[in-house]
Amino acid sequence: MKLGLVVLLALCACRSEAEHVTFGATASMRHAMPDLVARYRETGGVAIDVTYASSDRLAELVKQGTAFDGVIVADEVALDQLAVESSRVVATNAIVLVGPAGSQAKFAQLGDGKLVIGDPAHVPVGRYAKQYLGQIGAWEAVQPRLVLGADVTSVLSLAKRNAAAAIVYRTDLVDASPLVSLDEPPGAPVATYSAAIIRGAKHAAAARSFGEFLISREGQEVLARHRFSAPPQR
Q1: Average pLDDT per 10 consecutive residues for the chain, totaling 234 residues
Q2: Cβ atoms < 10 Å from Cβ of 158
Q3: 2-92+192-225 and 95-183 share one CATH topology?
Q4: What global pTM score does this model have?
Q5: Does 3.30.70.330 match the CATH number of domain 2-92+192-225?
Q6: Measured between alpha carbons, how far is 196 from 65 in angstroms, rounded to an integer?
Q7: What are the angstrom distances between the C-alpha of 59 and each of 31, 129, 187, 199?
Q8: I want to staple 103 with a disulfide (CB 3.0 to 4.6 A). Which of 99, 122, 158, 193 is the partner?
Q9: How far is CA 38 from CA 19, 46, 219, in A?
């Protein structure tokens, strides 16, 4: 009887520990993550507590001692700032140009008004924007009228304050109104989202399980509903 009670208490303790898995997720995952966590729970997974911030800010938080078990970041620059046990690409995204309805702006014809992008020094969406603008020879020309945001949510907020255009992710269009999508060029860099397990994570096994769920059929269906695309085939 005593042995059975000890085993039961041990199992309860393990479950309690597992129920506090913590993930940091890049801000552009803010709509998808609640649905992903809910679906994961339906499949028998443990609860996931999520903190949202820009990818680079998440890396800073880890360095400052925030005890994330895992993180999801939106480019390799942010990923390289982390000490991780393992990582894998779980989704991709695309940059789009947004602006007021009726605007004729395109990436190749940005006009003369303010252009809002994420700060390339700190935000993946800004780095992707800079890369593509450089690719098409427009980066130097737009310098005098750039407005820099701290993450994708602030880019949209700034853009709605009378900017001519902004560069955000396709997945951010859900929050863009009254702005509309003006251009999504097929030649733009693909944004890659990696789920990483932090080295020394307290709940590494549970975090890995959630990472596996993200690339499962169920996880990819949820991500697709939020306009993410599948990771590249290995």
Answers
A1: 42 50 96 97 95 96 96 97 96 98 94 95 97 97 95 93 94 96 95 97 96 97 98 81
A2: 18
A3: yes
A4: 0.89
A5: no
A6: 16
A7: 21, 21, 29, 13
A8: 99
A9: 14, 10, 10
